[in-house]
Amino acid sequence: MAKYLPFPPIDLLDRKWPSRTITQAPIWCSVDLRDGNQALINPMGPAKKLDMFRLLLRIGFKEIEVGFPAASETDFAFVRELIDENLIPDDVTIQVLVQARKSLIERTFEAIHGAKSAIVHLYNSTSTLQRRVVFNASKAEIIQLAVDGATWIHDLAKLEPPGSIRFQYSPESFTGTEIDYAVEICEAVCDVWQPTATNKSIINLPSTVELATPNVYADQIELFCRNFSYRDATWISLHTHNDRGTGIAASELGLMAGAERVEGTLFGNGERTGNLDIVTMALNMTTQGIESGLDFSNLKEIRRIAEFCTELKVHERMPYAGDLVFTAFSGSHQDAIKKGFAAMKETGQERFEVPYLTIDPADIGRQYDPVIRVNSQSGKGGVAFLIESELGFQLPRRLQIAFSQIIQKITDATGREMPSKEIAAKFLETYIRPPDTLTYHSHLPLECENDEQERYRFSVTYKEHKAEVEGQGSGPLDAFVHAITEAFGIACDIQDYHEHAMEAGSDSMAAAYILIRAPDGKELFGVGQHKSITKASLLGLVAAINRSLQ
Ligand code: KIV
Ligand code: ZN
């Protein structure tokens, strides 16, 4: 007998979900304080629970499973605190989990007494495997258990203010349950609760254990919805776990298959491989132009609080939230990202279209500048992007190549990533402030007999001696080269010249990039920065000359 067997396909040849798309957000229910909490190495204490509850409110959850009060004294006390201290906003419903046992249900009602709006969530396991090995019970006995639980809940709810209690039932381990049996047990529960289109109950169909590919879960949801006679009187809810690593995909396909509500946790914390990660699912919707109804604009802070409460770290590659997800190491990626941002800036286009990025990092409180980090795999685009974002210089292409070669040498030698601040410092020290043999102070235009030429007097320091030198040429740069060649014997040829304003406004700084060829044939860039473009150019020229004199 084989140790593992393929999951049998669902008999649903005319399935409709594959051609549907998600067009609106589901009702979100956070189970961080219950499913997430029960799976922690150190479950949250009262203070952390309150921190988490407040965080969930800030994000915008309107349904929050706050605990399993009959199973835990901490949960009981926490639910009481929320109610007694009036900490639950009027538009928020708390949810509590309970098994189908009379004493536990009574205790649960004690916990929620006085809540303005609460969902009592009943569950029992229904899978073929659990019926056989855990309960050793028949289908009818398991249905009776659920019906008894539903009845006790129904009776106790009558004692609470009308409309304050809603009902939820989960056939736990639904994915391992025959669909016709899942329908039968959910209908038996609904026969007790008698939900209507205006007073709906919730039927939560959990992928307690993810047993198959997500399309199979979608088939199960679609088949259930088609056959379930209380479909219009219930919200169909999903609750996926992540055993195969496809918990998010399963919930997404489950929505396409007809569900309207989703349970999950922040960053997918939960039993074993975790629950559905609501952050990712909601932000996936954002990237499709769907309003998720949840606010992740400060994802860093959300992550910080979640990590504090759960004592678990969010992985570096976790979608949207991980440290590395807006970082491109490959040069071609960096170049494309830089061009994407530049194109958006230039055209003022609103729609986010940047290669390799599905979301604008700024929309979730992250920044452009750490988008690109530089290591030995990086190319000129990434280095140029960092210099522009750190210092405001828009390097001409040849300078991008020259500088990225310098950086590559360093990263090859160190074998590590080079932080943007170090790259910026290297740029300044190489092109703007190289060791100075020659220093430019000022210049003065002089009368020139030749109309085609300009003549200048320059105040400079050469080898620590201040001097006034004069030269004539087609412009100030040419005149400067002639002046220092004549005075100090320094020769060079200007090969290329670029300039740009660094900020908007009449007062802005200008940047000038000068490429010279030294007598030994070496081509060297220098960069100058000044309010006057002429001075910026002269400073750039002097920087290049100083590099040639090194
Ligand atoms: O995973 C699960 O099935 C559960 C139920 C209690 C809904 O957490
Ligand atoms: Zn669960």
What can you see in these coordinates?
With 550 residues, this protein is an alpha/beta fold. The chain folds into three domains: 19-310, Aldolase class I (TIM Barrel); 331-413, no CATH class; 438-549, Alpha-isopropylmalate synthase LeuA, regulatory domain (Double Stranded RNA Binding Domain), CATH 3.30.160.270. 40% of the residues lie in helices and 19% in strands. It has helices at 32-38, 46-59, 73-84, 102-112, 128-135, 139-157, 179-193, 214-227, 247-256, 278-286, 299-310, 331-347, 380-391, 397-414, 420-432, 476-488, 533-549, and strands at residues 27-30, 63-67, 93-99, 118-125, 165-172, 201-207, 234-240, 261-264, 438-446, 454-462, 465-473, 493-501, 510-517, 523-530. Strands 1-2-3-4-5-6-7-8 form an eight-stranded parallel barrel, surrounded by seven helices. Helix 2 (46-59) packs antiparallel against helix 11 (299-310) and helix 8 runs parallel beside helix 9 (247-256). It is elongated, with a radius of gyration of 34 Å. Bound molecules: 3-methyl-2-oxobutanoic acid and zinc ion. Zinc ion binds next to loops.
Detail the poorly predicted runs. Answer: none
Rounded to the nearest angstrom, the distance between the terminal CA atoms is: 78 Å
* Proper CATH architecture of the largest domain: Alpha-Beta Barrel
Structural class: alpha/beta
Quaternary organization: single chain
| CATH class division of the largest domain | Alpha Beta
Q: How would you characterize the largest beta sheet?
A: 8 strands, parallel, barrel
pLDDT average, as an integer?
95
Individual helix count = 17
CATH homologous superfamily heading of the largest domain: Aldolase class I
Number of strands: 14
Strand content: 15-25%
Q: How many structural domains can be distinguished in the coordinates?
A: 3
Identify the bound ligands. Answer: 3-methyl-2-oxobutanoic acid, zinc ion
State Rg. 34 Å
Helicity level = 40-55%
What overall form do the CA principal axes indicate?
elongated
In CATH terms, what is the fold-level topology of the largest domain? TIM Barrel
Q: Could you give the order of strands across the largest sheet? A: 1-2-3-4-5-6-7-8
